[in-house]
Specification:
By secondary structure, this protein is an alpha+beta fold. It has 16 helices and 10 strands. It folds into 2 domains: 1-162 and 194-242, NADH Oxidase (3-Layer(aba) Sandwich), CATH 3.40.109; 254-396, no CATH class. The chain has helices at residues 15-25, 45-51, 59-63, 75-82, 93-116, 131-138, 167-170, 181-193, 195-203, 209-217, 220-236, 334-337, 340-354, 359-368, 374-388, 394-401; strands at residues 37-42, 66-73, 120-124, 144-153, 254-264, 267-276, 279-287, 302-309, 315-322, 328-331. Bound molecules: flavin mononucleotide. Flavin mononucleotide is lined by residues 3-4, 6, 58, 122-126, 159, 162.
């Protein structure tokens, strides 16, 4: 049975053997038979020492005679198209995913063939954590991206095969069977009972094996940082040019809307947060002033913001809700009902929301606005507060609403 090998003898892996294995792996399945992958072979010690830090200096990089970096590659296909009077459109996420799939399949096929020949190897997932460093070290052009690294050599160790979950834990028949607490116990108890894993828990001063993974090995914080790095590297490599992330999403005439009330000092405020696919798309907010006609019954917590284009081409935003008796009520001209200064700032903030800036960045931006009047600063904190509920998990969102400054509806 196979196992990852992390120690290698000094015996070289010949070019002849390596090429014959890669050659055979070329026959793996590939999208449209386009072979959307490349592999960079690193043997040179100096080059390996440049790569090593990107892999957190895992000793296998320097210790293996060969390091292979498998790359998603739409560069070659794009150049082919450009040279043949064709118009490639592969600077987008789906092309990245297709090329990454191709590269990983090719890599896995290579691994199977190499292990069958008695070679030892280890897969390095660190490739996607520090991809920008690898791009630079290997001088990868746009529309290529490193997705897997294999350290390869003749084994200097014979590790014993590691445990696996039982097949039953992996296979679902016809439909997906939920993992009830009983099924989790059944599938994970063997892994948790292994001496090495018990030791792992103890050394790390944790209570469960799962905590070793969540709190130490693969933390949310690290994953989020690596995600940001990876997205930035993908953007630099040209894979996010044709995506929606930087484009405005068309606004439907009617947007679902949450009504968020809050109290700031003595004033009662209201925010109408228009939502597109559950994410804030625009926000109207100001003092809840009955005299001016914003008379939203306390029981109303949602509705629709409707955009109307008037005859003179100007736009008006109305709020529609359904009252307790099931009648639709429309409050016309949300934009005109609030202080024009609030409205102008709201337009800017809505613009940022529409173009997809991450919500926590929008909130930091709004919170950092330095404005002259007390009222405007109150407005700013109200907007930040209204938006915060969309990044907090449900329980936190509820906590936000009931904090001391919130109105108790
Ligand atoms: C996506 C992925 C990332 C991995 N990253 C690393 C790594 O960075 N370092 C390492 O030593 N092993 C790495 N491995 C190897 C796994 O640790 C190994 O496959 C797993 O523990 C099971 O052990 P086995 O391959 O000996 O059966 C990775 C494997 C995969 C599939």
């Amino acid at each position: 049975m196979r196992a990852s090998v992390r120690k290698y003898t000094s015996q070289p892996v010949s070019d002849e053997l390596l090429n014959s294995l890669l050659e055979e792996a070329l026959h793996t399945q590939t999208m449209g038979n386009l072979q959307l992958y490349s592999v960079v072979v690193t043997r040179d010690e100096e080059k390996k020492s440049i790569l090593a830090p990107a892999h957190f200096s895992q000793p296998m990089v320097m210790g293996a005679p060969v390091v292979l970096t498998f790359c998603a590659d739409f560069r070659r296909t794009t150049d082919w198209a450009l040279n043949r009077d064709a118009h490639p459109g592969y600077d987008n996420l789906i092309s990245f995913q297709n090329a990454a799939t191709d590269a990983l399949l090719f890599c896995q096929r290579f691994c199977d063939l190499a292990e069958a020949k008695g070679l030892g190897l280890c897969f390095l997932g660190t490739t996607i954590y520090n991809s920008q460093q690898i791009v630079e070290a290997l001088e990868l052009p746009q529309l290529t991206f490193p997705v897997a690294t294999i350290t390869l050599g003749w084994p200097a160790e014979q590790p014993k095969p590691s445990d696996r979950l039982p097949l039953e834990a992996i296979v679902h028949h016809e439909t997906y069977a939920p993992y009830t607490p009983e099924r989790i116990d059944k599938f994970y108890s063997h892994k948790e009972s292994l001496e090495e894993n018990k030791r792992f828990v103890e050394i790390n001063a944790k209570e469960t094996l799962a905590q070793v993974f969540t709190d130490i090995r693969y933390t949310a914080e690290a994953n989020e940082t690596f995600s940001v790095n990876m997205l930035e590297a993908m953007r630099r490599q040209g894979f996010l040019n044709g995506n929606m992330t930087t484009k405005k999403v068309g606004r439907p005439e009617m947007l679902e809307c949450d009504v968020v009330r809050f109290q700031n000092k003595k004033d009662r405020w209201v925010a109408f947060v228009g939502l597109l696919n559950g994410r804030p798309y625009e926000i109207f907010t100001g003092i809840l002033d009955d005299d001016e006609g914003i008379m939203v019954p306390k029981s109303v917590s949602d509705g629709y913001i409707i955009r109307r284009v008037l005859r003179d081409g100007s736009r008006r935003y109305d709020f529609q809700f359904t009252n307790k008796r099931g009648y639709k009520i429309v409050i016309e001209g949300l934009s005109e009902r609030f202080n024009p200064e609030y409205w102008n700032y709201a337009k800017l903030i809505s613009g940022i929301l529409r173009y997809g800036m991450p919500l926590d960045n929008v909130i930091s931006l709004v919170s950092s606005l330095q404005l002259d009047s007390d009222n405007m600063n109150t407005w700013v904190s109200g907007v930040a507060k209204a938006l915060k509920r969309y990044i907090a998990p449900a329980s936190d969102a509820e906590a936000n609403v009931s904090d001391s400054e919130e109105e108790n509806d």
